[in-house]
Amino acid sequence: MADLLPASFLTQANALSRKNLAYQRRNIWSNVRLIVIPLYLCVVLVSIQALFDTHVNNSPDNRCGCQCIDHKNRDGKCERKSCGLEYSSQKQAFFCAFPNPPLLPPLLHIPLPKTPSVSCRRRTRSCPVTMLVTGNNHSLGPTLSKNLLTTSFLANSSKLWLRNLAINVLASSSLPLEFWLFSLSSSLISLFTFRSPLKFQKEVRCVQGLSLWRNKSINHEILKRYQKGNHKEIINEVTAAYDLLDTDMNNFNVTIFYNSTYKTKLLERRVKLVRVPRSVNLVSNAYLQYLKGPGTKMLFEFIKEMPKPETRLRVDVASSIGPIFFTWVILLLFPVILNSMVYEKQQRLRIIMKMHGLGDGPYLVISYAYFLAISTLYVICLMIFGSVIGLNFFRLNNYSIQFIFYFIYINLQISIAFLVSSAFSEVKTASVAAYIYVFGSGLLGAFLFQFLMEDSTFPRRWIFVMELYPGFSLYRGLYEFSEYALNRRNGMKWRDFSYSGMDGVFSIIIIEWFVSLIATYYIDKISSSGKDPLFFLKNSFKSLPSPGLQKQGSEVSIEMEKLDVTQEREKVEQLMLEPSTRYAIVCDNLKKVYPGKDGNQPKMAVQGLSLAVPSGECFGMLGPNGAGKTSFINMMTGLAKPTSGAAFVRGLDICNDMDRAYTSMGVCPQHDLLWETLTGREHLLFYGRLKNLKGSDLNQAVEESLKSVNLFRGGVSGKPAGKYSGGMKRRLSVAISLIGSPKVVYMDEPSTGLDPASRMNLWTVIKRAKRHTAIILTTHSMEEAEFLCDRLGIFVDGRLQCIGNPKELKGRYGGSYVFTMTTALENEKDVEMLVQNVSPNAKKIYHIAGTQKFEMPKEEVRISEVFQAVEKAKSSFRVFAWGLADTTLEDVFIKVARTSKAFNVFS
Asked: The domain containing residue 420 runs over which residues?
């Protein structure tokens, strides 16, 4: 197949989009369940509202009382229904109409004590009341305070005693119950309309007034009570405070503090008494008397409430509890997005996609657009469900405001999920943290944020700071929708946008969105490139191992390197001087050091590896476990950064140009990295598109790959990869690494878990693919290495011990024959004498139950002599079995590994 150009941004984006769509088709029921969640919650809210309407809103106790009147026929039928206060109970009276509210005296009420009565109350039924006065003019304060409190009067039902009440200051304990009824509310006045003149005469005494001058500002002292003694005996009560500021003969400037802590319970309703207008009138009269004399007075006789129409209890429970419910609904998308991102990270799916040519840009853009499309569909379904099912939360508020709010918030939510995903490596941990965030945000919003937001004394700047937390900014927007649905007949419109505070919420969300996008891109580049997070503040230099490690590595390599390894190093040094080379892979003194942990010494995983692999060659890496093979593969595929040295893939530096190197690379990792729900064909289509295959070429390449690894017949290619056996997954991973004819392929134990027939078939595929490809293969199978590899390198403790083709290595390290003979136990000495006669320098390498193995140097032995000696021995004793074999690759591997280990222990 001709060389393919690297896939463009649009090609990569198209490949990832198609893969995501295929993934969604495989997970359609998961999406259905996700969308059903808001529908379910909407149904729950509607059910709660219907239950509340039945038992509360439509209850006869929560509307004005009515009675059927039978005027004519007297047959008991209801000819006319009449509603009004006269037909209402105490509970129903609150909902009746009051077109003409009565006049109320503007009383200044003195708060009742919360402790047992003291002596002054027992004797006089009243205690002194305190008024605090302050200001810049000391002489003015006492003068005005003398005119604040007046004397007692006689309340007579036959006189205009309401006027007397209006111009006098009354103590709480000095009024009879009949007087109290005038000071509560218009509904109660109408309820207790006096149908006959009151027949009583009572002296109403005013409380003793005590004005105290304060040199400093009053602040919140009006809310405190003066107390004395161990029993906390109240000696006076503060009803109001007047801060006269800079008041003088030409300027009247006053701030009034009043005690609003008193509440009374009457007819099962708690009502605050009106006292603010009376306080203003008192100080105004005092100031006029100061200016004009004691005869001057402003008469403030009555206050009157607004007329009230008939009402009925209409509580929209669904809108009231909507903020917490819909906070959970919107935030439920966060765990879905976060888990998906962390899953690809945990399963190393993103890195395998990157190794096959998927760039960071297409991945971030398409993944973002993918989650945005799902989230947008989710909120649209939520709005449709809520409106169709009849929730005022959605029906009354302007749909465009709602959609824009949800849209910009889901953008913020997606960017935060991308950002947070870098902090997690396991799906379980990320899922737990995400759901804590979801439900914690809703509960904190309902029981903390809303409480502080409705508290007028809480600083607004701190509300702004709290809204910087994304969960609270979402809750604030939903809270405003709820308030407008509850209190406005038409809900929130665009004209209410600024007044409602939604403009500030929108600004916060949009700014945080852009900030989180920038942070996500920065962290993604840092994690993918391996740079230090503060690289822009530091000098650019390569990370080198400590001088001790570097010196030790060079000394050992010089001392241990064999001629073949030295020749390979010299070849690499010569290639590094050339401007271009035909070699696909070049490694120059590559090293990898893992830092020590828990007090252990640093681990030198790869020590000065120099290697050149041309195109068309399969280079096999052999070595015991822990030799450094996987560390080398990880460096070459970008999973780990080299500590020092350099490596080039088709002339591209793996430290600086890895993204470009990925476009011509194929990888078969040691563990299968597959999507469980995608089929084998869908995997190959995705990776084929990343290699810039299109149209008929793509389909042909996919079919050939499936046939080559025996995944085409029997509908296997259409099954999800999660249902494949281990061998089938392994074959699919090999097919993925070879799709698109990459120029460099890394295979880490590709035939693991395969049966002999499948293994032989796979070897044939790999051997055919290496014609135009440089392949680096790691394996523990000597048979596989001898069949596939043109050259072999044996790794021990991070060092390349030898290099050459299989025949050269067997000839170099296997210069002996292996002679095996099995006899009776009593003839073992005879066998040893036979071997010594044939080869004096032979060594016994195996002995068990009459079977012995000897290693005979080839220069001492002729095969014909061995046959003659065995035939002669058969006439002296019985020989059960015997054999003469040349050295195998496995013998070479064991010999090199043992020799190297022994040298390392000795050194």
From this structure: 27-43+320-349+373-529
Angle at 126 between CA 123 and CA 129, to 5 degrees: 140
461: buried, middle or exposed (CB in 10 Å: 19+, 13-18, 0-12)? exposed
Residue 297, domain member (yes or no): yes
**Coil/strand/helix, residue 897:** helix
Mean pLDDT over residues 397-423, rounded? 93
DSSP one-letter string for 390-423: T-HHHHTS-HHHHHHHHHHHHHHHHHHHHHHHTT
- For residues 698 and 14, the answer to whether their CB atoms sit within 8 Å is no
Tokens of 883: 């054999």
In the predicted structure, residue 669 carries a pLDDT above the cut 80: yes
Question: What is the CATH classification number for the domain harbouring 768?
Answer: 3.40.50.300
How many domains are there within the chain? Answer: 5
**Of 405, 408, 399, the residue nearest 492 (C-alpha):** 399
Q: How far apart are CA 437 and CA 334, in angstroms?
A: 9
pLDDT one-digit tens code per residue, 505-526 = 999 999 999 999 999 888 887 7
Q: What is the DSSP string of 654-684?
A: TTT-HHHHGGGEEEE-SS----TTSBHHHHH
707 and 850 fall within a common domain: no
Instruction: Tell me if 538 is assigned to some domain.
Output: no
Q: Residue 508 contacts by C-beta under 8 Å, 6 or more apart in sequence?
A: 464, 467, 468, 473
pTM: 0.69
Closest CA to 671 of 628, 720, 726: 726
If phi > 0 it is left, if psi is from -120 to 50 it is alpha, else beta; for residue 694 that is beta
Strands 644-649 and 583-594: antiparallel
